[in-house]
Write a structure and sequence with these properties.
Structural class: alpha/beta
Oligomer: single chain
Number of strands: 10
Largest sheet: 6 strands, mixed
CATH class of the largest domain: Alpha Beta
Mean pLDDT: 86
Number of helices: 11
CATH topology of the largest domain: Rossmann fold
Bound molecules: adenosine-5'-triphosphate, magnesium ion
Order of helices and strands: HEEEHEEHEHHHHEHEHEEHH
Helix content: 25-40%
Strand order of the largest sheet: 6-7-8-3-9-10
Distance between the termini: 33 Å
Number of domains: 2
Low-confidence stretches: 1-21
CATH superfamily of the largest domain: P-loop containing nucleotide triphosphate hydrolases
Radius of gyration: 19 Å
Length: about 280
């Protein structure tokens, strides 16, 4: 199911320009962090974190408040520069690549603090995100006006399908600011999906949801992975939810990756029990 699998030489890290053109290293993980660090003045928010995310997996990130989870997403999407280390996408370095170019490569995220247009309707919020899909080529962009009406219709169809998938179809005409919290979180996911990502980064998608909504979200993320052939990284404080949802997890504490493995391995890791879970396994 891999969309990668190109014939590029895996021993050489391709430059960013080649990356943007779709170069891949055969057999490389979808995403790899090598000794990634982030400092804010004297504060070390991430301390030489290494991870590899394989195509198709759901990968969880947990850790106490201030552990560096959101900072990690900010480095992955390029809004915060790394202080050290490397980020590789399908085997090639993207550490210095601008956020919009990473988005074109297939990285999309949701935010811990929701970033919707509250005055626009649910449908309009989605159409704005769909509008951001770049034309396939410069010529395509110049000719876009010719196909404008057709692409408008396509966007509406895409939006309707995404709203249906995310359980928001009945709310299409409502201003986003009037939605219940869980619905707003799902709209954020729909907006991220509108950019057709390969890797979806979800920052606390279940925050503010009740237990039933959390269960539904868990199922939804699994369904979306299958239907959209996604790889998912998810930050979540609700540990039981992550244990059910994820293939593997990493635990951050004070910017350091203190554990990595299957939910069972992480649950039994003495460092996790000690540092994060206050003495009793989750
Ligand atoms: N732009 C910034 N400037 C200075 N310090 C920052 C900045 N962003 C994050 N930090 C600090 O970096 C550390 C990690 O913050 P981060 O938001 O990544 O934690 P988190 O694991 O997402 O926490 P939470 O679970 O509360 O969301 C914290 O000490 C935070 O105060
Ligand atoms: Mg955070």
């Amino acid at each position: 199911m891999s969309g990668g699998g190109g014939a590029a030489d895996p021993s050489s890290a391709a430059p960013a320009a080649a990356m943007a053109a779709g170069a891949v290293a055969a057999g490389a993980p979808l995403l790899e962090l090598r000794e990634l660090s982030c400092r804010f003045g004297g504060l070390v928010a991430l301390d030489r974190v290494s991870l590899a995310i394989e195509e198709g997996e759901i990968f969880g990130l947990i850790g106490p408040n201030g552990a560096g989870k959101t900072t990690l997403f900010n480095l992955l999407t390029g809004v915060t520069p790394a202080s050290g280390g490397e980020i590789l996408w399908r085997g090639a370095a993207i550490t210095g690549l601008a956020p919009h170019r990473r988005n074109r490569l297939g990285l999309a995220r949701t935010f811990q603090n929701l970033r919707l247009f509250n005055g626009l309707t649910v449908l309009e919020n989605l159409l704005v995100a769909l509008q951001r899909q770049p034309p396939a080529s410069l010529v395509g962009g110049l000719l876009a006006s010719a196909g404008h009406r057709r692409s408008e219709r396509q966007r509406l169809e895409q939006a309707a399908q995404l709203l249906e998938e995310l359980g928001l179809a009945g709310l299409a005409g409502r201003p986003a600011g009037t939605l219940a919290y869980g619905d707003r979180r799902r709209l954020e996911i729909a907006r991220a999906l509108a950019t057709r990502p390969a890797l979806l980064l979800l920052d606390e998608p279940a925050a503010g949801m009740n237990p039933a909504e959390k269960d539904d979200l868990c199922r939804l993320i699994g369904d979306l992975r299958r239907r959209h052939r996604l790889t998912v990284m998810v930050i979540e404080h609700h540990v039981p939810l992550l244990m059910r949802l994820c293939d593997r997890l990493a635990v951050l504490d004070f910017g350091v990756r203190i554990a990595l493995g299957s939910p069972e391995e992480v649950r039994q890791d003495p460092r996790v029990i000690e540092a994060y879970l206050g003495g009793s396994p989750p």
